[in-house]
Design a protein that fits this description.
binds coenzyme A; 24 strands; 2 helices; globular; 8-stranded mixed sheet; 6-stranded parallel sheet; Rossmann fold; 2 domains; 196 residues; alpha/beta; UDP N-Acetylglucosamine Acyltransferase, domain 1
Length: 196
């Protein structure tokens, strides 16, 4: 597996892959000054390299890199990384390019999109739908049947009560409690969460 993004987030993904018995061949990064990451070589060309995981935490940046890599190499395959301590229901679906970190829980019939991050200790309960390029940050909790549109960031320690919908590219602040639907393209913080 190759990791695009020689970052702190990338180091964590490398360790998840290693813990799952998957070797990381190299990191790739646009920054020519970065030559080593977590004991791996950092390359600066991605042409022909597959399978790949984009190890960039910012949702919009991750989306742009995925599009770029697809344009460069239409045959590219994207991997999945799931930490051995994560609990993933056999009925859950996880899209390509997605990372599930240590201690995360994904319950029955949840559908996680492509290139998502389900971060350390996060929980995604039954029948949730998590759109492509979302990030459920450390210890955030989605109750059952929550629907996140594309690119949502659920900040660290935030939660959403059952059956709510959060619109695309919205940011939910750290520690927020979402108790009503939230529209797309906003930042919402607090308890209860309100748009800033
Ligand atoms: C919500 C958030 C995106 C706002 O960032 P920002 O636009 O740069 O906002 P600022 O830091 O300038 O703060 C603006 C105001 O919002 C308040 N605020 C910021 N984050 C808040 C939060 N999570 N909850 C409540 N209030 C918050 C600030 O106190 C400040 O209030 P003031 O105007 O009364 O002083 C950010 O603080 C946040 O919570 N991000 C989540 C990060 C995260 O969990 N990432 C996961 C990494 S693994």
């Amino acid at each position: 597996m190759y990791l695009f993004g020689a970052s702190g987030h990338g180091k964590v993904i490398k360790e998840i892959l290693n813990a799952s018995g998957i070797e990381v061949q190299a990191f790739i990064d646009d920054d020519l000054n970065v030559t080593e990451c977590a004991g791996c070589t950092v390359m600066h060309e991605s042409a022909g390299l597959t399978p790949m995981l984009v190890s960039v935490g910012a949702n919009k940046t991750r989306q742009k890199i995925v599009e770029r890599l697809r344009n460069e190499n239409p045959g590219i395959r994207f991997g999945i990384a799931v930490h051995p301590s994560a609990v993933v229901s056999p009925s859950a679906v996880i899209g390509e390019g997605t990372v599930v970190m240590a201690g995360a829980v994904i319950n029955a019939d949840a559908v996680i999109g492509k290139h998502c991050i389900i971060n350390t200790g996060a929980s995604v309960d039954h029948d949730c739908v998590v759109g492509d390029f979302c990030h459920v940050a450390p210890h955030a909790a989605l109750c059952g049947q929550v629907h996140l549109d594309e690119g949502v960031l659920m900040g660290a320690g935030s939660c959403a009560i059952p059956c709510l919908k959060i619109g695309s590219w919205t940011v939910i602040g750290a520690g927020a409690a979402v108790v009503n639907d939230i529209e797309g393209g906003v930042t919402a913080v607090g308890v209860p969460a309100r748009s800033k």
